[in-house]
Amino acid sequence: MATTLTINGKKTQVDAAEGTPLLWVLRDHLKMTGTKFGCSVGQCGSCTVHLDGNPVRSCILPHDQLGDAQITTIEGAATTAAEAIREAWIAADVPQCGYCQSGQIMTATALLESNPNPSDDDIDEAMNGNLCRCATYLSIRRGIKDAAKRLA
Predict the structure, then answer these.
(1) What are phi and psi of 14, to 5 degrees?
(2) What's the distance, CA 38 to chain centroid?
């Protein structure tokens, strides 16, 4: 089934079976492997992308139901908040294995774009559901706070 999606600001023609999750369209059809597969049920957050600026789980989102939505992947995250998050992640040495980090970064970016000065509770609420097997949660919080300072 041919579908046109807007990914990272570019209209892209995709030929994938009806109901194919966006995650697999990105990874298998478009070779955009920055978005990671984790659980396939929307529980871990590794596959997080932005849909019209909001973080969503791409593993449970059928590509053919997205219409004209703007999809942003880790490869296309280029806002001021995204850059601040990346710089803070490096400065705080946040990732260990790194597998969950694209989802963590996409969720943290959406948080800072909607709330440039989040409290610990705001961070915990926004990041809830983004799992990290290495348990770098305190480093992630530090990274978000550092990124908020960079944006101020």
Answers:
(1) -130, 135
(2) 13
